[in-house]
Amino acid sequence: DEESWIKEKKLLVGSEDYGRDLTGVQNLKKKHKRLETELGSHEPAIQAVQEAGEKLMDVSNLGVPEIEQRLKALNQAWAELKQLAATRGQKLDESLTYQQFLAKVEEEEAWISEKQQLLSVEDYGDNMAAVQGLLKKHDAFETDFQAHNERGKDICDDGQTLINEGNHHAESINQRCQQLQNKLDHLRSLAKRRKAKLVDNSAYLQF
Question: Looking at residue 128, what DSSP letter applies?
Fold first, then answer.
């Protein structure tokens, strides 16, 4: 019975689950690919039912309105199923790019929290050599920070592209970009404070 087969598949493609992480999305995409193959190979069966119904109406006048109605309903259900499958496929693609975006954001946030701990250390050197060493380290951090700040901008530009393309995770993408920017700004101000204290300490020790 084609109608109940379509009904069963509609439940599958109507699912709102688009995966909670990269692996989850990849698995759902594999499942969806199998389903699309199944739909493709099922098309001839649907056509066969259509043709059989039309032949029946040609040779007999009995039950024509009912057959017509059933064929129309079958056609509509099949078209809806294909549309739902296409929409789900697109949303799974969007979820994949969203998860890839998230992975980059989380990588940057991990770097930020590691550096945040280092910048919060209260050691400013107890002699000139120590201060010079710490200042050198700090300069290296600042170079590193510039690179990560640029990377953060690039990630958020990519995020904005996803939003402009209508990705259905737009709200979350926007939030994560703002959050990343705030964390980078906070790290910058911590770095500024530490640099000032190191410079002060250097001046104090020279004095």
Answer: H
